[in-house]
Amino acid sequence: MQIEPLQMTPVQMRGTSHLGETQEAEKPKSFGEFLADELKDVNQLQLKSDEWKAALAAGRVDDISQVVVAAQKAEIALQLTLQLRNRATSAYQEIMRMQV
Q1: What does the pLDDT read at residue 31?
Q2: By 3-state DSSP, what share of the chain in percent is helix, strand and coil, each rounded to 5?
Q3: What is the per-residue pLDDT for 10?
Q4: 66, 52 Cβ separation under 8 angstroms
Q5: Long-range contacts, 30-34 (Cβ 8 Å, 24+)
Q6: Which residues pair with 16 in a beta bridge?
Q7: Can you list the alpha helix ranges (DSSP code H) found in 13-63?
Q8: Cα–Cα distance for residue pair 65/81, rounded to 1 Å
Q9: Cα Rg for the chain, rounded, in angstroms?
Q10: Distance from CA of residue 70 to its chain's centroid?
Q11: Does residue 70 contact residue 63 with C-beta atoms inside 8 Å?
């Protein structure tokens, strides 16, 4: 049995805006491309948090709340990513246990 990849088809708007603009339909991303983009975003949040921490250690930060906010954003994004990974792994294991 061959498993086909998911094909997501987003809703496309057909029409013009009241300002006379036209919107071109984007090519839908595959699930892998979407996942890779989101992982890059999480990585960027982690790197930004590290930059803020280094600036704090060097004494170049006036407002410590910016460092805390950046660290919390990175932490929440990482926790969400880990939970999604755990859920996907659990679902995969459940599917593999099914008897055909």
Answers
A1: 87
A2: 60, 0, 35
A3: 66
A4: yes
A5: 30/5, 31/5, 31/6, 32/5
A6: 22
A7: 31-58
A8: 24
A9: 21
A10: 16
A11: no
